[in-house]
Amino acid sequence: MSVEIIGMITAAPGSEVDQPTGAAVDPTFITRMAQAHETAGFDRALIGYFSNGPEGSLVSSHVAAATQRLGILLAYRPGVIAAPLAARQLATLDQFSRGRVALNVVSGGNDADLRRDGDFLDHDARYTRTDEYLDALKRIWTADAPVDFDGEHYRFEQASPAVQTWQKPHIPIYFSGASDAAIDVAARHADTYMLWGEPLDAVEALVNRVRTAAKRYGRKPRFSISFRPIVADTEAQAWARADDVLRQVKATRASLGLRAEAPENVGSQRLLAAAQRGDVVDERLWMGVAKATGARWNSTALVGTAEQVAQSLGRYYALGVDTFLIRGFDPLGDTIRYGESLIPAIRRHTAELDRQRTPQAA
Hints:
Layout: E1 4-9, H1 27-40, E2 44-47, H2 56-66, E3 71-76, H3 83-96, E4 101-105, H4 111-116, H5 123-141, E5 147-150, E6 155-159, E7 173-176, H6 180-189, E8 192-196, H7 200-215, E9 222-227, E10 230-231, H8 235-256, H9 266-275, E11 280-281, E12 285-286, H10 288-293, E13 301-304, H11 306-318, E14 323-326, H12 331-357
Parallel strand pairs: 1-2, 1-14, 2-3, 3-4, 4-7, 7-8, 8-9, 9-14, 10-13
Antiparallel strand pairs: 5-6, 11-12, 12-13
């Protein structure tokens, strides 16, 4: 199977170690990040959803204009924009980018964050709405006549399918969420199911759980996993970098008065449960930042040389995970660094694993 490598582009400089202090939108920085990802050999770049940040589809349009082949993974919350308008908006972006858009469906995670955008549904209701929303999008995208829809959360008449997606049958759907409600929706809709960076045994169990759920609908999703790799020329240097990252994260959070509060979402709870097993799990899965921040987002790291990290990713690849979302704590610098060493190592190592899987391939 072919491996897919995804990065992440933000609209302005900054990360957990260096909180942004300038304008929320820096077009020059977006262009630099987009072109750095393309040069580094990433297949896609995630454009995140932030209720206190720039609107992702517009950032994505800028990224598409600044690049030639880089794919875009647009984080998108159901319920913020009505489904008929969303279908046209996303299809238009897919046309402008000539089929480089995929959708990362984010149903929620933090109630306070959701309420900033006027969303007051409870957890399970959000996933019921997401299921309905994706049904509506797909019906419009694949229709050859106006669409009527009458659901619990959405109702519309004669929605126009005139703006078609470049990709057929529709824009690919990436989906995350580890609760029972989330996995049922993922089983019905996800082309790629996304996990945060957990230990190998936890990932294997969740992959099998999603596969079993998807099988009921006759579907076979791909699987993606997200890490914050910390790489250096030697393993000792990489661990020294990790120590420095943790020091900076703690100092930044202290200066902002932030505390690691108990997370509401199941994904974060799973990361914190894994962190209870130790600061380092499975040889080089480092939980330091996850523990310090309450694991509110993708925050676990693989630490080592590029070859060592690629070998660790290979163990997830052997479990059926063939998409890796990798982003650094030094966003631009790590993007360049990954292109120089880690991405070539990942592609070499997974290609070798594929050759070993094929009996007597020669």
